[in-house]
Request: fold
Amino acid sequence: MNLKIMQSCEEKLLLDAPFPSFALNKNGQITIWNPICEQYLGYKKEDFKNINTLKDQLLSTLSENMWQRILDAQEFIRINNIQLLHKNETLSKADIIIIPCLINGEHSIAFYCFPEEQFAFLGDSEQELNDLKNGILSSFMVVNLDHEGFIISCNPLFLKTSKWTPKRVLKKNFWQLFPEDEESQQMADTIWNTISKGKIWQGDVQKTKKTGETYWVHLTAIPTYSQKEQKYSYILIEQDITNEKELQQKLEKIAYVDAETGLMNVHRLENVVKKMIAEQQNFYFVYLSIDKFYTLKELHNVEVESNFILEFTKRLKIYFQDSVLARVNESDFIVITPLGEWFIQGFLTYLKQHPIYIGHRAMPITISGGITRSPQDQSNFTQLMNASLATIADVRKAGGDNILSLSESAHKKLSRKSIIEKRLLLALDQHNLKVLYQPQVDLKTGKIYAVEAFVRWEDEEIGVVSPDELIPVAEESGLINNIGSFMIEEACKQAAQWQQQGIELKVGINLSVREFRDKNMAKFILDTLMKTGCPANLVQLEITEKFALEAEAETSIIQQMRKLEEEGITFVLDDFGTGYASFRYMQLLPIQILKIDQTYIQSLTKSDKTQRLINGIVHFGKSMNLTVLAEGVETEEQKQLLEQYDCDAIQGYLISKPVTADKIPQLLPS
Reply:
């Protein structure tokens, strides 16, 4: 299917192109000669019996060396200002792009000719040319990228399919056209690495719409090199193949049975569970995972592995008679049963009483399992799976070889998490998030010099959602970027407003490494500063040690951070001491402020060891020419100790709780 789509794309492009275009097969025979060739050049396809007649006539000005380069080409070639010999023996200048491709299953070479003069041969008006251009643009989605991968233009068909508007899409980069999952981003990296080396990339890829929906396209990504600017730009030509892909996926899902065990697979299981929930049935959802399965695989050969799984399946079928059984993956199985917990947990005893033998030796098999009730604990398939995986994680932390239910409080936590995710989408859409600010005081002057911005959300249905609860959900659901954008815009707007009132306050904004993986992040921040009129030196971006460790390995993140530092933005290393501190990232990253985590401050007056530790951290920061800030300061005694250690600044309830922006001026000296 893919090959046919690719062939039709290349062939249609050649035939519909509004300029002379043709193709040669590997034998040097012309297989495609579009109508413009005949109109403009005067030749018919039959005039060229083989490659020699083409070389002697139309392209007689090309050297033998150039011809050999064309025939051996593995990537696109652009030849500028060559002479085309028309059939009436006149000459015209043109640029030619030569692209190796597949047409009708054959390795071929496509030639696209771009004459220098106007296309006067198309008629008395430009209407015919416009019609041809519109024809190709209506057949394919077209996106143009600059040398950094930012979108500089696109055609209406792309906008219609992707649901983007011109204003929004022109701010995006190549990677943002793809889903955010790891596999899609790796595919985007592969495509970019190919075209940035001057090579064409072709294939089927999944992309994402503005709405978050995904769709499939057959993509031809073509690099074009500008001699004048000495850099590449890129053209993406796309054909929507979503219907074909969906049909293919539906056909694949028809095979609902796991071929090895005969059990239903996860696709079929999901449908069965949804039907049982719709019928309001009560059942236990039992997730069973074989412990250390891949270690067992390494100890035994393939035949043994297959026999082992079949023997394990037999025991499942015997023990859980009249229950629904499914295989999720190599080592994980699910049982849907009305039988009680005591019976389900008895499966471990049954396995010990009926061991699986390989040769004459019993396999040392243990099981970690999770039991979830429907609808008492969780009410849909995704929630049942998430609850089960959370239970198994707890079982394995405790050593494995057990089948347990998740606690009632844990189930409530999972249910709340699911509700938060749904309500957060609505909150972002309706601008229901708020920003609070907590002051930071310079210990030498006693003055408030900065504030840290915190996101606050109070939902009418679920009440107050703390940052500790909100941020993990936002990161898992991919909404952290939306929250980050909101915080940046609000904080910059507020800093600029305070400055207009004669109040110079730096504003700290917490950002995640996920946000900086967007290669357009630095540009967005700088654009926001310009839009809000906020000076860069009033912005402090707070990052965690986890962020720093990941950024250390990603050049693009470091580059973006340095670009922002050059503009005057300050970086703060937040929660210092709670993660994996690294002297290396202290050298690589543009960090100016070290923030001691509040967990240390809480025990400052209670522990001599903590006092020595914090004193050491302060001196370490000073030795690195960093400003040291302590957060979570709640008592005068804590403050006095920090002053003794020569700490630069403090933040905490001793100064003020996080408050709304209008309360901050009231905290400043009159």
Observations:
- The two ends are 74 Å apart (CA to CA).
